[in-house]
């Protein structure tokens, strides 16, 4: 029983072929088809409005040098948002529940922000490792602590996204299993658990959107420190 609950997080295969690339490419079906007009229907209008809103939110704390990252950060936000929401549909697989994928996104982007700071303003970037006015005996310890906190950032990004989505999917499966099991024995209790399941599903939709936003927002804040 415990193993079956975690089977939903195992990488799906069909005839020995991994289906993760297919699930990663599936959000591209939501993109509008090429057309001579900018706005073709209400869906395209909604997508453009959402992309514009996300770009404004992410680029507000950044200066003009950071606006070069607008396309990358907005695309990453829409990509994670689409995958997280599509993963809530029945009989689907959520790639962002895999720590390996989230780390593959977090580490290169965090490293890019770090290298940007070291290239453009090396003194200021290295100055973050030692706060101003630090007593001399504490300098080695503080440098080690700040370096550790700097290196742990990509791990925190990946683990936060993985843990939140995994916990939500497990709760949904546990409560749905309880609802089906209690239906023939205690219909009233089953109806109550079904209501809880409905509320939890709404919460998970919010969590899927919030976690995608938090992932990209933290990357933009890391970028702000280095430009």
TrEMBL record:
Keywords: ATP synthesis, CF(0), Hydrogen ion transport, Ion transport, Membrane, Mitochondrion, Mitochondrion inner membrane, Transmembrane, Transmembrane helix, Transport. The keyword DNA repair does not apply. It is a multi-pass membrane protein. GO terms for molecular function: proton-transporting ATP synthase activity, rotational mechanism. Component of the ATP synthase complex composed at least of ATP5F1A/subunit alpha, ATP5F1B/subunit beta, ATP5MC1/subunit c (homooctomer), MT-ATP6/subunit a, MT-ATP8/subunit 8, ATP5ME/subunit e, ATP5MF/subunit f, ATP5MG/subunit g, ATP5MK/subunit k, ATP5MJ/subunit j, ATP5F1C/subunit gamma, ATP5F1D/subunit delta, ATP5F1E/subunit epsilon, ATP5PF/subunit F6, ATP5PB/subunit b, ATP5PD/subunit d, ATP5PO/subunit OSCP. Belongs to the ATPase A chain family. This is ATP synthase subunit a. It comes from Numida meleagris. The gene is ATPase6.
